[in-house]
């Protein structure tokens, strides 16, 4: 089934200043335009819609926003004034809708971003629960968005403080992300989407989990294949029919090559029990198959050869996403590489940076630019949970050569995900000029609007 992506966004009277319509590609989108063209606001609108954070629209001055998805779903968000009170309504193409007062939404946000609510995840207001229910009942979060703000380096500096750093290491990441979002909104306004991109430490932990799952999958496969091969070997021995198209010499040579290649793999070394069995079979073949091979034995060799082939294919597929991701990251690194290794004494593998002298360091010692590459490439990979990746100014902290390679590496990890980047750097789109989208808003005259500001609008403008 195709992944749901954003096809079109239509913005009407944003800040009572401009209208903007943007059509998107299903995979890569490079948004560029002059300063003040609304690039960051566009990213924020998409993130809040995709993540179902409709309460945030109480903090944006607008008339109407329409979002169209690739599967035909349409969401229309309006801001209307009734009896001097402003309301936000969210209406879906299936006719379902939710409506709430701007004043209630503001009070709710102040409450849910208090320290108590930040720590107690399950404590929510009635409005927040109503919006969550609306989102779940209408399956509006079939996809989620990872949002990378332009002020990522500032967040890194904030998170490196002793208290926040301790919380990020010890307390669950969801609490850290909520606290980071609250901190950023104090500076950049309440319409800012949730900060939800993974930290290098989270990626390190997730990679351990991914590798562990691959290990368990291989172990189950080894057990199942060994049992099936045992039955097939006896069947071949009793069948005694010739093996059509199989030449014994070439068969033995292929078996030898497959066995040697798999013996050198660190992934196989973790499963010593099964590797030992395969090695004993190989030794038995070398000792006893001198000269003509009986048909029955030839058939058994084919079973063994096929088992080795299937084993190699399964292992490559099990680790392919992990290896592809690390390969992309390593293409940017010098004098070190991101790697993993198995330790039979530990439940989880070692994941970190490996240096030419054989020493290891945790991922967090990477430079600012390297950490950003690590997180953006992870968000674009199949291992990431989010299908839409939103990046504001990806060029920040990146060398010009890295800027030119970034999209190529992200696209190699994409696997159906949609990437939307906003940039001022032409180097980012090198080789991908066909995916560039120049946005030019239609500015409207304030004289065309009944624009006197009430107390709610003044508060929102201050937040923005």
TrEMBL record:
Protein name as it appears in the record: AriA
Residues in ATPase AAA-type core domain copies: 312-428
The organism's taxonomic lineage, starting at the top: Bacteria, Pseudomonadati, Pseudomonadota, Gammaproteobacteria, Enterobacterales
PANTHER family (alphabetical): ATP/GTP PHOSPHATASE (PTHR43581), EXCINUCLEASE ATPASE SUBUNIT (PTHR43581:SF2)
Gene3D superfamilies on file: P-loop containing nucleotide triphosphate hydrolases (3.40.50.300)
Residues of the Rad50/SbcC-type AAA domain: 13-126
CDD domains on file: ABC_ATPase (cd00267)
InterPro entries: ATPase_AAA_core, Bact_Antivir_Def_Nuclease, P-loop_NTPase, Rad50/SbcC_AAA
Pfam families: AAA_21 (PF13304), AAA_23 (PF13476)
SUPFAM superfamilies referenced in this protein's UniProt entry, alphabetically: P-loop containing nucleoside triphosphate hydrolases (SSF52540)
Superkingdom: Bacteria
């Amino acid at each position: 089934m195709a992944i749901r992506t954003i096809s079109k966004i239509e913005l009407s009277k944003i800040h009572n200043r401009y209208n903007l319509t943007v059509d998107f590609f299903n995979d890569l989108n490079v948004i560029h335009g002059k300063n003040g063209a609304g690039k960051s606001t566009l990213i924020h609108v998409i993130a809040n819609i995709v993540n179902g954070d409709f309460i945030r629209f109480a903090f944006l001055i607008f008339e109407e926003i329409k979002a169209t998805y690739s599967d035909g779903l349409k969401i229309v968000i309006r801001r209307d004034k009734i009896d001097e009170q402003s309301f936000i309504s969210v209406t879906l193409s299936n006719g379902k809708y939710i409506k709430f007062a701007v004043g209630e939404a503001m009070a709710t946000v102040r409450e849910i971003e208090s320290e108590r609510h930040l720590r107690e995840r399950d404590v929510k207001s009635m409005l927040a629960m109503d919006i969550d229910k609306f989102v779940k009942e209408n399956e509006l979060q079939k996809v989620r968005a990872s949002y990378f703000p332009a002020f990522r380096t500032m967040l890194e500096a904030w998170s490196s403080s002793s208290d926040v750093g301790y919380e990020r290491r010890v307390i669950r990441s969801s609490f850290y992300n909520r606290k980071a979002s609250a901190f950023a909104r104090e500076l950049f306004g309440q319409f800012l989407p949730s900060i939800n991109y993974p930290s290098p430490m989270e990626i390190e932990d997730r990679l351990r989990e991914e590798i562990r799952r691959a290990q368990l999958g291989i172990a189950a496969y080894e057990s199942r294949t060994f049992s099936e091969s045992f039955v097939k070997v006896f069947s071949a021995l009793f069948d005694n029919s010739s093996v059509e198209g199989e030449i014994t010499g070439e068969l033995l040579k292929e078996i030898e090559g497959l066995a040697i290649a798999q013996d050198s793999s660190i992934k196989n070394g973790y499963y010593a029990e099964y590797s030992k069995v395969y090695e004993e079979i190989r030794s038995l073949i070398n000792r006893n198959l001198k000269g003509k091979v009986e048909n029955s034995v030839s058939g058994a060799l084919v079973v063994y050869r096929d088992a080795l082939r299937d084993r190699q294919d399964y292992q490559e597929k099990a680790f392919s996403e992990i290896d592809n991701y690390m390969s992309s990251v390593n293409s940017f690194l010098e004098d070190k590489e991101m790697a993993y290794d198995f330790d039979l004494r530990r439940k989880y593998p070692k994941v970190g940076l490996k240096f030419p002298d054989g020493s290891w360091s945790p991922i967090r010692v990477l430079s600012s630019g390297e950490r950003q590459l690590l997180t953006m490439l992870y968000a674009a990979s199949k291992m990431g949970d989010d299908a839409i990746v939103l990046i504001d100014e990806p060029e920040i902290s990146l060398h010009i050569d890295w800027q030119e390679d970034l999209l190529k590496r992200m696209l190699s990890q994409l696997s159906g995900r949609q990437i939307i980047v906003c940039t001022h750097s032409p180097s980012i789109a090198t080789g991908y000029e066909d995916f560039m989208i120049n946005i030019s808003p239609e500015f409207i005259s304030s004289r065309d609007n009944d624009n006197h500001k009430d107390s709610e609008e003044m508060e929102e403008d201050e937040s923005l």
